[in-house]
UniProtKB/TrEMBL annotation:
InterPro entries, sorted: PIG-V/Gpi18
Protein name listed in UniProt: Membrane protein
Coiled coil: none
Species this chain originates from: Streptomyces katrae
Mode of membrane association: Multi-pass membrane protein
Membrane-spanning residues: 73-97, 109-130, 150-179, 191-211, 249-272, 279-297, 303-319, 326-346
A single GO molecular function term of this UniProt record: GPI mannosyltransferase activity
Major location (coarse): endoplasmic reticulum
Cellular component annotations (GO), alphabetically ordered: membrane
Entry keyword annotation includes Acyltransferase: no
Record pathway: Glycolipid biosynthesis; glycosylphosphatidylinositol-anchor biosynthesis
Signal peptide positions (record): none
Length: 352
């Protein structure tokens, strides 16, 4: 299911790139943030880009190391980056299926993967980005938690923390569940160890950036210089207010506002469905980061791609519907995803 949906999406972008006289491999593997990851894979850290007109200082320290390291091990370049991303996306699809199958049954598991592969920003799952790798590590860590495989869950959380800033959501899921078990009286060494180990990857990279900059919280300074900061949602509310009051709005901004609104609704449904605690914690942290962060507003749907548990209520409803209804919904969403993905990669002038 995943290969069919996203493979068709890659074909659409490839044809569009050829029509625009552009290299499809460069479009898929070397656009926007991919350029920074390829630079780190080839030359290591140390690149800084300054924009005097906007007082912006963009340092590659903002990017976590696991994806560029894996790209480097495969020889570097866009093809290597795509090999890592596509492999991770396939692993993620299986992990997401396993989570859906365990909670809702096999049919709902397949539909969960289909919905995830058909999201508006799902094109990112076939680009040289870190979201596929984070999704793979998160899905299998959460699956391990559902099966009480504590050290597997914690180890994957460590790797997730070395992949993206939002990898802390995986660590939070492991640590919070471990804390609950300890409060219930568990004294199992694996529970203690998992709870303490899970945040180690994320913390280690943040501290490494601080040491490199001789500033304890230097990583957050790097993010502010990029224009990213946590403002408790003030920036998000401002953009939404502009959209609702008739201000001039671009297509990516409109899609982002709609995506955030749907995500909020699905979060309520997820909570009402009595979803297992680790999935709730993981999803909540991703939502807080996406909604509460300022800067790169159009990228918020990409930040929410790993929040696949939000789709569980929809997958459950589709599993109970007639097969033709499930097919129609999937085909419709996939078609829109193909068109929007081609627009984002080939036409839009805003960062993914």
């Amino acid at each position: 299911m995943f290969a069919g949906v996203r493979g068709a999406g890659v074909l659409v972008i490839t044809l569009g790139a050829w029509w625009a006289d552009r290299n499809p491999v460069r479009v898929l593997g070397g656009s926007w943030d991919s350029y920074w990851y390829l630079s780190i894979a080839a030359n290591g850290y140390g690149r800084t880009q300054m924009w005097p007109a906007s007082d912006s200082i963009q340092s590659d320290s903002a990017f976590f190391p696991l994806y560029p390291v894996l790209t480097h091990l495969l020889g570097g370049g866009p093809v290597a980056g795509l090999a890592v991303a596509w492999t991770a996306a396939a692993v993620a699809a299986v992990g997401i299926y396993r989570v859906g199958e365990r909670l809702l049954g096999a049919r709902a598991g397949v539909l969960l993967v289909a919905l995830w592969a058909s999201l508006p920003h799902a094109v990112v799952l076939t680009l040289g980005y870190t979201e596929p790798l984070l999704c793979a590590l998160a899905a299998w860590s959460l699956y391990a938690l559902l099966r009480e495989r504590w050290m597997w869950a914690a180890s994957l959380a460590v790797l997730a923390g070395l992949t993206r800033p939002t990898g802390i959501a995986v660590a939070a899921a492991v640590s919070v569940l471990a804390l609950r078990e300890l409060l219930r009286g568990s004294r199992a060494p694996a529970v203690w160890a998992a709870g303490l180990l899970a945040p180690a990857g994320w913390v280690s990279y943040v501290l490494a950036v601080g040491a490199r900059r001789h500033e304890l919280f230097g990583y957050f300074t790097v993010q502010r210089q990029w224009g990213s900061r946590f403002d408790f949602g003030a920036g998000t509310v401002g953009v939404v207010d502009k959209v609702l009051t008739g201000g001039e709005v671009t297509i990516p901004v409109a899609v982002t506002v709609a995506t955030l609104a749907v995500a909020g609704l699905l979060a309520v449904l997820l909570l009402l469905d009595r979803t297992p605690l680790p999935l709730l914690v993981y999803t909540a942290v991703l939502l807080v980061i996406a909604l509460g962060g300022a800067g790169f507003f159009e990228s918020k749907p990409r930040f929410l791609l790993p929040a696949f548990p939000l789709l569980l209520p929809v997958a459950a409803a589709m599993a109970k519907a007639r097969p033709r209804t499930a097919v129609a919904v999937t085909v419709g969403m996939a078609g829109l995803s193909f068109g929007y993905g081609a627009y984002l990669t080939l036409l839009a002038k805003v960062p993914l």
